[in-house]
Write a structure and sequence with these properties.
By secondary structure, the protein is mostly beta strands. The chain has three domains: 1-37; 39-120, Carboxypeptidase-like, regulatory domain (Immunoglobulin-like), CATH 2.60.40.1120; 243-499 and 506-762, Maltoporin, Chain A (Beta Barrel). Helix content is 6%, strand content 53%. The strands form seven sheets. The chain has a 22-stranded antiparallel beta barrel. A hairpin with a 6-residue loop joins strand 35 and strand 36 (586-591). The two termini are 53 Å apart.
Length: 763
Amino acid sequence: MSKKLFTFTKKLRLSPMKHPFKIILLLSLLLASYSYAQNNTLSGKISSDGEELPYVNIYLKKNKLGSASDSNGYYQIKNIPNGTYTLIISSVGYKTKSVTIAFNNTQITRDFSLESDNSLQEIVISGTLRPVSKSNSPVPVEVYSETFFRKNPTPSIFESLQNVNGVRPQLNCNVCNTGDIHINGLEGPYAFVLIDGMPIVSGLSTVYGLTGIPQALIERVEIVKGPASTLYGSEAVGGILNVITKKPTSAQLLSTDTFLSSWGEFNLDVGLRYDVSKKTQGLLGVNYFNFQNRIDNNNDNFTDMTLQNRISIFNKVNIERKNNKLFTIAGRYVYEDRWGGEMNWEKEFRGGNQIYGESIYTNRWETFGTYELPTSENIRFQFSANGHYQDSFYGETSYDAEQLIGFGQFIYNKELGEKHDLLIGLAYRYTFYDDNTFATLNDNGVDNNPSIIHLPGIFAQDEIQLSDRKKLLLGVRWDNNSLHGNIFSPRVNFKWNSRDNSNILRLSAGNGFRVANVFTEDHAALTGARTVEFDGELQPETSWNINVNYVKKINTENSFITLDASSFYTYFNNRILPDYETNPNKIIYANLEGFSVSKGVSLNSNILFTNGLTINTGATLMEVSVTENNIKKTQLLTEGFSGVWSISYKFNRNFSVDYTGNIYGPMRLPLLGDNDPRDEYSPWFSIQNIQLTKSFKNNWEIYGGVKNLLNFKPAANSINSSDNPFDVGVDTELNPERAFDPSYVYTSNQGIRAFAGIRYTLY
């Protein structure tokens, strides 16, 4: 109310009964004054990079008066009282903007432009071997952060991947519970696993390498689906999985995570950042997992889960150098003692034929690092080395193996003008492998002959900026395998995006090349009663792949939505697959006299609501087939459909709930002939979990929940002839269906179980 009007009303001193007309006049003046004071209006348009932004929140901080932009980016706020206000403009996926505006009976028109929030644009390196934002990468890369894995805590990254669309942890043995990672239906040996970009997990460690990585030190996991042989060599046929560890300069000072399950599992993760000197920082991580509870819920006299005792120690050091040049070196040591078998097995029965057990001792060391050369040019040297030693018995079958791998590469990165980003690499890999099987015997079948492979290579990549919104990536690689000769691996990628990056289209094509090592990659060759046979000398596999990827980002009034759709097609020549069906008593390895095809479509969706609700879902529909002698069959242990989800809700800053799960369609399973009593296909099944988390102000966090809510378990007769594991008195040639066989496995035997844990973080 104005001063003059207030003075006027004071002087009137009216009685409502004596002066009704004057009272009405006064009320009219008051209303007019109020309306006049509320006549301020603010309007305009919200955009980003020239594109209108719908559903942007815009409000006055002082009184919360506000609005939201319409589908064309326009907004309007009416009836603003006079005064000076802080205006807040916010939208999920964009940086919040604050502006001070003074109102004094005016109508103001103001347009605002918002910047994309780079914190939501993850930096990835796996697709192109150089840091680039995820949306700008011409190669589609999926990123899964530490937060994602905390929604369903597990003892290893291997198990954590169960909620990643198109990626399935596959157990290979019902007794020893070893496993590998399937990407888009392709088995573990086709997936190249890296730690900080270095080829650490391969060969002997294919089935063990993803256990024992301290999860307290994992920053994120990057996944590229489809061949990446041009940059990473012959093993990256089906895709790559790159585990990125935290930087010593930015990691938490201390982080601990401990949990227990009602089955008796105990897991401890510890991460510690320390200073060696002013210019040298280190990061130490320890993982310890222990499970010693003999459980046989399906009453087959075999342990439902392998007993394990594992410790892993990880250390990473970063050294600051002149001109911000990088030097980082890391190392890891893993020791594991695991066994599974008949419930009354003891170590004294190891290697004997009285009581069946599979006992595996693993000793493993790794070192890797990056050194940027002190030159004006961007040149870096990356290196890794690892040794893997395995002492194991599968019943009476002994498998002692040793593997040493050394790797090094120089990478030169150079921008040529404004349109070319050139990357050139020189690589060399040395592999030594020896075991006590016939795979490392001379032709005479008596003398030992370890395998030694030299693999020098050179690769080049040119990222071409065709226009502001178009990129072309051309790459080529040449390797020379000392046993198999020259390997040539080209690829091409194309990317288009809309002006505001809300629409992204990627096209890619390339080929892959792989040399198989049966015993290091497939533990089904060692377990059970089947004998292994090679049909001729195994020749390298070759494959060609095409992929189409489309990403759509949608901003709404209350949410930010990302849709990520892909289609893929891979054609294999010379494919090497285990043949369980020609002879039920054997596993026959041979090059396919025909072809194999992996094709399908997948869709990921991510919805982030402003109210604290987050929904991540994914589904993959695929067909992986083998055609030989004009007969087409579905590949063993490959699902036609899979789906995953993760639904999280924050009730407030301190309390949240996570509901995660997956669902799989039927898979064709290996049988022991037509009379095998087990089903040829697995049923539809789903593994679902729920977790509650409570946070406290002093950086403590407790969590707990239930795993496998539906209590799904495979059939009780999954291990065939579990009552006679040494085939005593059985002629397996005449009666193959009576042979002992633990290779019929598609998921874990663990049923429903509770878990609880506690975390502490010190910054």
